[in-house]
Amino acid sequence: MAENYDYDVLVIGAGPGGYVAAIRAAQLGLKTACAEGRETLGGTCLNVGCIPSKALLHASEYFEAAASGRMAAMGVKVTPELDLPTMQGQRIDAVKGLTGGIEFLFKKNKVDWLKGYATFKDAHTVDVAGKSVTARNIVIATGSSVTPLPGVEIDNDPGNKNGGVVVDSTGALELTAVPKKMVVIGGGVIGLELGSVWRRLGAEVTVVEFLDQLLPGMDGEVRKEAGRIFKKQGMTLKLSTKVTGVTVKGRKATVTVEPAAGCATEKLEADVVLVSIGRRPNTEGLGLDKIGLELNARGQIETDHDFATKVDGVWAVGDVIPGPMLAHKAEDEGIAVAENIAGLTGIVNHEVIPGVVYTMPEIAGVGLTEEAARQRGPVKVGKFPMLANSRAKTNHEPDGFVKVIADAQTDRVLGVWCIAAVAGTMIAQAAQAMEFGATSEDIAYTCHAHPTHSEAIKEAAMAVTGKPIHI
Ligand code: FAD
Ligand code: NAD
């Protein structure tokens, strides 16, 4: 098939967008290569993102359940002792196992891994580690990296003089001791997940957030309730607050903050400062000027619905293009782009991309927030508290609620939001229902197994028409 080219498809970047695109392209009979500059495959997600963070969230949750007396309340009395090297070891093992798994899948599907960073020479040629490689189609899946905070230097390496004090998410995953005091700059997903890990293990965590609520982009009521829960868990939240400077002396940092509106500064002492104010697309060094591909105002590569860029034969998926920076969004785009390249119809419904914050309880949503839905027209909203869900109550997991937002005229579900211990798992049914164009009545009349947390979704759907049973 490749004829005058070395490959039919060359994917740049082996994160969830890139490796999935490469595997699907190969499955479809296309001669495929994937260039990756990192030592291991899997991108941000498997190496320094989703997987290692969840390894620490899961383990630290066990620790806190034991340390806080939650286990004792169920008749399991233990006095936990933290073995951080082992906890970190199982994180490293999880990453090793999964990144190795992608290498195995590449071999199995005959995807060639070109080791090195790729730079465009023209729209069908890239240079990887000094070698020119040609392809009929090139998919840019270079992902994203941490947005720096101007004037604040990040050094993740604890071996350096001031290293390991002001860190990004990668450094925060690799701490070798529990900080006494940790300041998290940015109350988004990373700040709350990694802040939770170290708080559970004993750190005093202060989250400094510029906006007046945590978790921008999520439903307003969910953001408010999340703030209440994190505060109850012991985090100090400084909302509507901006950081004006960070200084490091030895192993200590001083973070200067002031209200977003200005005035009275305050100094926060910390052993570790986590900078988690967002991520930005990776396009530097790609040589996009060589192919005449421009970036939008946010530094992203624009594509059409097929994930084709303005340059013929060049496609893009994942964090480097607009949309939520989520692994499953990147993966679905990876499948779709490969199918489009192969002449099939690859589609991603960007209206139905679930988002989950993996704290305890988890926080999840799909579709529109209530605020966004109301802007479009009249809605009906049904809510159900987890306190009234038999399984959550029995499991001592009283926090949270489910909210179903439906169109007032058609009853079609526009958004579902959950705060619950297993909200990340629960949200899948909501996404599927919305993908099928379900009404709240469809969910309300679907038989849900008892006793499950998911029954709260059914009850919230019943509440849309004012008829939940258990409240
Ligand atoms: P990436 O995963 O960033 O992969 C891009 C790859 O391209 C990288 O490996 C990079 O080395 C490589 N690359 C870049 N330039 C070149 C080049 N020129 N040549 C060759 N290779 C190149 N998302 C979720 O959905 N769930 C989560 O729980 C979650 N947790 C996260 C936790 C943390 C701490 C972080 C930082 C992120 C998390 N994310 C999570 C976000 C998720 O990791 C990203 O959305 C996802 O990895 C994006 O996939 P991608 O393929 O677009 O890019
Ligand atoms: P984010 O966009 O989720 O949150 C950044 C927060 O920092 C926002 O609340 C923002 O208002 C705040 N902020 C920005 N500038 C600030 C400043 N100067 N001072 C104080 N606060 C400031 O970004 P993130 O947490 O860094 O995560 C990056 C990306 O990674 C996100 O897009 C997210 O989707 C993805 N991610 C996803 C998961 C998950 O799905 N569970 C987990 C981690 C990361």
Highlighted features:
7-stranded mixed beta sheet, binds flavin-adenine dinucleotide, binds nicotinamide-adenine-dinucleotide, 24% strand, 471 residues, alpha/beta, FAD/NAD(P)-binding domain, 5-stranded parallel beta sheet
Share in β-strands = 15-25%
* CATH class category name of the largest domain: Alpha Beta
**Category by helix and strand content:** alpha/beta
Which superfamily, in CATH terms, is the homologous superfamily of the largest domain? FAD/NAD(P)-binding domain
Q: Give unreliable regions as ranges.
A: none
Q: How many individual β-strands? A: 22
Distance between the termini: 62 Å
Biggest sheet features: 7 strands, mixed
Ligands, deduplicated: flavin-adenine dinucleotide, nicotinamide-adenine-dinucleotide
Please give the count of helices.
13
Computed Rg: 23 Å
Textual characterization of the structure:
- The protein is globular, with a radius of gyration of 23 Å.
- The longest helix is centred in the N-terminal third of the chain and has 25 residues, at 84-108.
- The chain is built from 13 helices and 22 strands.
- It starts with 6 loop residues before the first strand and ends in a 7-residue tail after the last helix.
- It has helices at 16-27, 43-48, 50-67, 84-108, 169-173, 189-200, 220-232, 327-341, 370-376, 390-394, 423-435, 440-444, 455-464, and strands spanning 7-12, 32-36, 112-115, 118-122, 125-128, 131-140, 144-146, 166-167, 181-185, 204-208, 236-238, 241-249, 252-259, 266-270, 272-275, 279-281, 314-316, 355-357, 362-367, 379-385, 401-407, 413-420.
- 31% of the residues lie in helices and 24% in strands.
- Helix 1 packs parallel to helix 8, helix 3 (50-67) packs antiparallel against helix 4 and helix 3 (50-67) packs parallel to helix 6 (189-200).
- The chain has three domains: 7-146 and 280-341, FAD/NAD(P)-binding domain (3-Layer(bba) Sandwich); 166-277, FAD/NAD(P)-binding domain; 355-464, FAD/NAD-linked reductase, C-terminal dimerisation domain (Enolase-like, domain 1), CATH 3.30.390.
- Strands 1, 2, 3, 4, 5, 6 and 17 form a seven-stranded mixed β-sheet that branches.
- The protein is of the alpha/beta class and 471 residues long.
- Bound molecules: flavin-adenine dinucleotide and nicotinamide-adenine-dinucleotide.
- Nicotinamide-adenine-dinucleotide binds at residues 149, 185-191, 193, 208-211, 216, 242-243, 276-279, 324-326, 355-358.
